[in-house]
Amino acid sequence: MINIDKYAYASKLHQKNSIEKIAFAFITLCVCLWANSILPSLVILLVMTWVSVRKGGIPLPFFLKLLLLPMSFLILGVLMIAFQISNDPQQFVLSVPVFGTFLGFSKAGMETAVRLFFRALGAVSCLYYLSLNTPMVDLLSALRKLKCPKLLVELMSLIYRFIFILTETTETMVTAQNSRLGYSGLKAGYHSLGALAATLFIRAYKRSDQIYTAMEARGYDGDIIVLEEAVPYSWKGFLPAVLLNAFLIVSVLLARQYLGGLL
Amino acid sequence: MNSKRIPMIASITLMLVLLPKNVFAMHIMEGFLPPVWCISWGVLTIPFLAYGLYSLRKITIEFPKLKLLLAMAGAFVFVLSSLKIPSVTGSCSHPTGTGLGAILFGPAIMSVLGVIVLLFQAILLAHGGLTTLGANTFSMAVVGPFVAYAVYIIVLKTKGSRSLAVFLAAALGDLATYITTAFQLAFAFPDPTGGVMASTVKFMSIFAVTQIPLAISEGILTVIIFNAIMNYLKDDEFQSLKIFSKEALR
């Protein structure tokens, strides 16, 4: 389940300054949304895949598998957008009559859909680049540096740690329930899942009590102060982000001016 | 015409039958919304988050212990949303846990926990996205919890049983989330001929097929969980939970 997290710690890029990586992913993501066209999206997809696989050492099959993850949402969503209802069958490329009106795909609808499909793929690859190469701990310290509310970041870092405790507890309990045929039928399944969630909540509650006591005994007074590994950052680190996006923006503007059309 | 019609009908039927049921899960994926809508939904969410953080700060200054309880609750919602609800058709779907959280901790705090959980789902599970975080937070961590909490209080005030209140709160909270998501998609992609309303109908029709059964199963599940938790709550050990919603857990 938390495979992405494991790859992030093992990534060859994990030593790089996290703010540089956030800038690279996020600016490219914004440009991808802004451009909203096929070719730039494909370029972004390729660049992000190449950087993650070659520079970060993420296995290509894993990256591709991740890209397939949102595919069912994407295909269904895109089809819904391409799909239209109208009384006039002339505007459709492909249509069926239903109860006196027509359902079908128009040229404009399909164009929006195709652009959206590639835009979403490009955007998703930016997200994957970030999450596969930046461990959560680094992301949180970057958020702290970017002046995110302190309480929010602190809550996030606590939740991140607790997720693993609770996941482990859940896995143990699910194994125990399965070995007693807890999920053999629908009724048993609901019963087991209810018991599992309730017990998990109670365990979490008690655990938080114990952790608080332990932390208080060690001088906790509302702040968790940790030493962070200082990763030097330089203006050079922002160069890839600036160059890639300047190139994309200029070429999109040129293409819009002189070519128009689908690109 | 006829030669075109048959493959079309066949493909739509196949699409509806073969796709797994949770494909249109409530998170809008990364890159799906145009920039204008990403920003608008984000801006709309900020006041709720600010209020949630404000009340959170007040509570944690008074009772520092509760910060850890809240963090555990956030992790609980994350883990809960990765569990599978058993279902008849063998399709897989996941509980959201927002209804339960809203009843136990109040909707304002739930919206802060919700945005954190959504961010973690985007980064750790590749579910949802960064630019769509605002829209997803609005539907799942603002509308869902507030509707669930309002329903819960209303049913209790009209002397309905607690189980009924919990069931309706969770189920309607879920439905409100889906409806909001459908509207968000429709606003971003209005139908060229029918406008926003036609587009809402389109998106809503997929939700109706997949999400109504899901909302009902979430309702049933939440009742089971809530009753089990209430049994424990009689114990003195769990008094601090009542600080959050004195009204609801009386």
- The count of β-strands of chain B is 0
Shape of chain A from CA axes? flat
* Shape annotation of chain B: globular
Order of helices and strands of chain B: HHHHHHHH
Assembly type of the chains comes to heterodimer
> For the CA atoms, what is the radius of gyration of chain B?
19 Å
How many strands, which pairing sense, and closed or not: the largest β-sheet of chain B? none
H-E string of chain A: HHHHHEEEHHHHH
Count of alpha and pi helical runs of chain A: 10
Low-confidence stretches of chain A: none
Measured by DSSP, the beta-strand proportion of chain A falls in 5-15%
What name does CATH use for the topology of chain B? Arp2/3 complex 21 kDa subunit ARPC3
Which sequence of strands runs across the widest sheet of chain A?
A: 1-3-2
* H/I helix tally of chain B: 8
The helix content of chain B is: over 70%
Q: What would a concise description of this structure say?
A:
Chain A has 263 residues and is mostly helical. Chain A is 70% helix and 6% strand.
